[in-house]
Amino acid sequence: VQLQTSGGGLVQAGGSLRLSCAASGGTFSKMGWFRQAPGKEREFVADKSRGSSYYGDSVKGRFTISGDNAKNMVFLQMNSLKPEDTAVYYCAASPTVTGSYVYWGQGTQVTVSS
After folding, report:
1. Is the separation of the CB atoms in 30 and 48 below 8 Å?
2. Would you say 62 and 78 are in contact if contact means Cβ atoms under 8 Å apart?
3. Amino acid 28: pLDDT
4. Which end of the chain is more exposed for a tag (fewer CB within 10 A), N or C?
């Protein structure tokens, strides 16, 4: 199984970025995004399964997760970015809806300048 993540970069506060993740080598019922800032624990950002989407409190109303189930792809549209959104963002996938995430992408850096 491979998860290929892309779309990170440097953006000014208030700007937008779109992350993409393409999974291959398996069947995935749930895909999502996590992030980890320096010195902090990994944080849940958003995930999507069976047509339902969930968001972490810190990104609700600003981030939108979407996906192409047929292509095993998931996207994260990030709007109104804040400096505190700066982190390495990881794509994750699970073969089941209720199971833990077992597959992880390599991470992509998102840096938001003030």
Report:
1. yes
2. yes
3. 92
4. C
Helix (H) or strand (E) holding 67: strand 63-68
Distance CA 57, CA 102 (A): 23
22, 3 contact by CB (below 8 A): yes
- Two tokens, residue 102: 């077992």
* Closest to 46 measured CA to CA, from 75, 18, 71, 83: 75
**pLDDT tens digits along 53-74:** 999 999 999 999 999 877 899 9
pLDDT in tens, 78-94: 999 999 999 999 999 99
Structure tokens at 20: 């993409």
Structure tokens at 57: 């409190």
> Residue 97 to residues 46, 59, 101, 108, 111: CA-CA distances in angstroms?
14, 22, 9, 24, 31
